[in-house]
């Protein structure tokens, strides 16, 4: 795997990172957990920061963790000051730093522009590629669901993409969703895939995303309008999205 873009790391941590400390404020750590299928991403993050370790946690989980106070102070904390988090994870980071070093004057380098690599990292952490068959209608969708505290992030994603819809579920969860095939085709071609149709996502989620793109493109080509095409997509759905 090529060297990770710093913005991708920020986006991924915004969705899947954790800053923690013990009750007695003596032990501090930064960690990222992933399914073992994406362990190569954790090693790439370890290579980027040049510190920490990757360990097995549970049957199918792997974890990248930095607990050395020296590495936290000299590498992790400065990185997230220079490359500020965008979600409520930023507040968690601030609390972490105040506990870790109360004398440190936190100053962030804010980047308010929408960054593709940040978004890709966030998709790798929080994006959901789904496809269902309802009343003989093939329905691919892309969904990001977040707690209400982070609803502004979903608003910014929609505004910058100029695609999709935003809504709030009855349980209070905030959602950004793509369901229009025109929107999904644009999203697949401009965000998920390069001009050479190579994957931009880093984790094992890219495999499901590519299968999702295949269905979106088949619908764009109206393959689902023929009996043969519909049955082929139906079989593909059963094997990959059941």
TrEMBL record:
UniProt GO cellular component terms: mitochondrion
Keyword flag Chloroplast: yes
GO molecular function, one term: endonuclease activity
Translocase keyword on record: no
Keywords for this protein: Chloroplast, Plastid
Any Pfam family hit: LAGLIDADG_1
Designated name of the protein: Homing endonuclease LAGLIDADG domain-containing protein
Organism of provenance: Pseudochlorodesmis sp. HV01306a
Underlying gene: orf242
